[in-house]
Amino acid sequence: MRLRRRKRADESAWRAVRRCVVFFATICVVPVLLVLIVTTDSYMRPVRQTAFVRPQFEHVERHEANLHNLTAVEKRLERRRLHLRKACKYLGLNVPGNDSLHKPDPWEFLIDVKHRLVWCNVFKAASTSWMYNFNILAGYSPKFLKKSKVVPLVLARQKYPRPTLQILRKAFNNSVSFLITRHPFERLLSAYKDKLLFALPHTYHRKLGSEIISKYRPKVKNQKGFKPEKWPTFPEFVLYLLDSVKQNQNLDMHWTPITEFCTPCMFDFDIIAHTETLQEDQQYLIKKAHLEGLVEPQWRNAGHGATARQIRKYYSQLTRSQILQLYHIYRYDFELFNYSLKGYLELGQPDDDPSTLLAAITLKDFPQNKDNPMPQLYR
Predict the structure, then answer these.
(1) Membrane-spanning residues where (predicted)?
(2) Cα 135 to Cα 345: distance, rounded to the nearest angstrom
(3) Nearest CA-CA partner of 255 in 111, 127, 99, 81
(4) How far is residue 223's CA from residue 225's CA, in Å, rounded to a whole number?
(5) pTM above 0.85, yes or no
(6) Are 255 and 194 in contact (CB under 8 A)?
(7) Where are the domains of the chain?
(8) What's the pLDDT tens digit per position in 5-18?
(9) Residue-wise pLDDT tens digits, 325-362
């Protein structure tokens, strides 16, 4: 009997011990497990969210880079404005007059009153792109513009009629005004290739090309296997252009100097964009004019531009005196927008007669008069 009682007492003691062990184990182990679970989750959570966290930091970095880039672009555009003002004053082009250089011309300006935007349309200087943008701002849909057979300029003028000088000056006071320029010789070559080279039949420029060929192409007797070109060569086009200027004829809008086209010395443009830096300049323009989400930076005909190889190909067909005479025609575009003749004169062929080159060097810019004296081409 006593043995049974002793066994029961021992079993009760062991149960008590086991309960204590289980109790203390539970108290000690469970918190450890909870800590492990929380700790593991805290390590795993960044791994799962990395795909979401990193772009936030990248966005901040891109934003800071964009702000820095916009600041650099703004400084560059301000330097261009200051250069234009100084050049206008030095050349006497900021003095009002009655000729095409000193009389403000509002003819090619487009004014978007709703978006407070003023643009002087310079052909062959991203004009296709910004004509498209202005048509978008006017309410035309991209689908309509793609299908429409109407010339974009005609569509634009239905929404943006040609302004009077008074309306234009008023718009300059409360709008973002801009002008896009291009190296004069690149613009000239682009105009030749786009409008005269391979011009379509029954068009104005095809007819003009035939007239150039008739006047400036040497009469070559028919030879076996000889097939004359159907379009004027670049030297033939240049001869036509030089003669047109000497005879004081109106030039085609696609190769009229920008100085005469937009009279930039008569207006205070906010932005002077260059095709050489067009992407950045457009981004700044769109931000300044609050056009984000409405239009995009683009140059729709950029692929048709003049490359260094094309420039060498075409300008090496000219003589040095011809290149200098072309510089004379576009001299004010060179000066006002800070372009250089460097690299072009070296491409020209030596003139057979040195006096021809000397005559090109001593050319004067325009006929001088008392009211608007003009400096000589070279001093």
Answers:
(1) 21-39
(2) 40
(3) 127
(4) 6
(5) no
(6) no
(7) 71-361
(8) 555 555 666 666 56
(9) 999 999 999 999 999 999 999 999 999 998 898 889 88
